Amino acid sequence: MNQTVVEVKDLVKTYGSIRAVDGISISVARAEVFGMLGPNGAGKTTTVEIIEGLRTADSGTVTLLGMDVSRDIRAIKERIGVQSQHPALFPNLTVEESINFFRTLYKTCLPAADIITLARLEESRKVLYRNLSGGQQQRLSVALAFVNDPEVLFLDEPTTGLDPQARRAMWEVVENFHRTGKTVLLTTHYMEEAQRLCDRVAIMDHGKVIALDSPRRMIEEHIKESAIQFKMTNYPGDEVLAGLTGVTKAIREGDEVILYTSDIPAAISALLSLAAERSAALSELFVRQATLEDVFLKLTGKRIRD
Amino acid sequence: MRAFAAVFSVHFRQFVRDRAALFFTFIFPIMFILLFGWAFSGRGIQTFDVGLSDLGSPQSAGFVAQGLGMVSAGGGKQMFEVEMGPQEEMLRSLRDGDLDAVIVVPADMDLALSQRLPSQLEVYYDPSLASNQQTLIPVLYQVVDGIDRVLQNSTPLIGLEQNSLESHQLRHIDYLVPGILGMSLMFTGLFGALPVIQQRQAHIIKRLGTTPLRRSTLVLGDLTFRMILVLLTAALIVLVGRLVFDVQMVGNWFTFCGMVVLGTLAFTSLGYLVAAFVKTEEAAAPVINVITMPMMILSGTFFEVTSMPSFIQPVVKILPLTYLNDALRQIMVAGTPLHPMTIDIAVMGAWVVVCLAVTIRFFRWD
Questions:
Q1: Nearest to A106 among B9, B18, B212 (CB)
Q2: Global confidence as pTM
Q3: A4-215 has which fold?
């Protein structure tokens, strides 16, 4: 059953002089949760929208469920579920009416009650969409992507704008769906989300995939070390810090400094003596395990939420 | 078909839950008809309060009062309500707006008349009021003429019998009702651009693009709903015209509905054209106003286009509403044609074709 559900080859899309998608190739297997991770403008949404058939690529091919997106898009649309980045529904329809409207658009669909439960809007089924809170609108929007019991689910930043509790509930929804053997392709800029949900992650920047692997392997491969994070006055410069005993890489982000090391005691003592020597004050110092965020920082030199 | 019905019902629900849309579609045109109907026609009966001031010729003043009293305004009412009093007091009432005109009978009139010498009555009135210019003064001339003839004992040799060209005489309200209908079809058609722009701006159209729903179904559902809406509007306007102002529908209902649909298509196409170029709801409202307001005034909704100055006539001649109003008037009240009906239909058809062609070229769904 390890067949390929999404196959993207050499995808290119330019807007004027900007190469929004710059030669992307990915493939997603059945029953996989595949994440696309990157800052705004990295080309995630454009790529996903080309795969969904909403945009046409300048060059490259997309095969979805064994069909060519540019040819068989209507047959494909029956079998995929899409949640677009902006919750977008008719403002003057109630929750129930919105769901029933979407149900009429597909040949096969789940009962409306299932979708209401999924959106956790049992109490608000008669409420007009425009009177729902932002979080409720978002939940309805995501739940509607399940209406045709899709084989592949596309979620574009599904938890952006949700509070932490709603976010965790949404993760459970995605995990339950995944457990039934369905495929998910999601974009996010939450590292925690990617790390928890995704079997594999593609890190994107400037329209390119710059790393692609499981979150765990990615962290192991790119950052074998731990991270020492602190703030420092009289900043001596990246080269000086990177040259300290046991430090493999030093990155400064705003007033925060991160040192990567596999020898924590040596690195810390070297850092402390450097600080004493330069009479620089250290604050908010802590040592932690590396995360996807560090991978991203190391690969692109910037944080994801810039 | 199921999807079409669903799209139709979505548009229906969206509409009935939008109070502003409801108001502008149904209440607004009816308000116009009632306001203008009552303001202009006064149900066809116009009366004037006239002050009569006698400076010393009671016999002549008596003739004038008697002559004024004989003029009927129709409906069993007299056209003139005559009040007698000193000149100063009468003129003050005229300035205050309590009187419409003051007639002053000179002191030497009785004497002049007995000697068969000409004499002048003086009349004071406010020329800035249209009703004075159009009705009061001509009628006063007739009254004076009549008194003159009685005094000279003469019988007119040539008379004039009035015959209307149409089977019935058109009142202003008869002119107005088809115009208001044309206007509201224009508003419904053009404001139809707003939901399209809103739904595109709110990414709803994009979201629907991820479902198997065809765009043609989306457009057809919207269009069908709009057509049913305008036919309802038309029925309501005809009904109010009939019940309140006795405006009779002389034409054939089938032709009438066809014209309503064609007119709406012309303005809906123009609305889609707006949606092809205007991206945001905030920008759309002023653009639509700039298109609809001048058209409402220039296309003979309230006043005849022939009374417009000649430099504006070329503009009048290209506006679709001019032709829709003309056609509706011909059908509904057998109004005098500005153009033959075939020209009206051809011009509106041309608007549909041109607007749709440009829309298809430039419209973007996202």
A1: B212
A2: 0.74
A3: Rossmann fold (3.40.50)
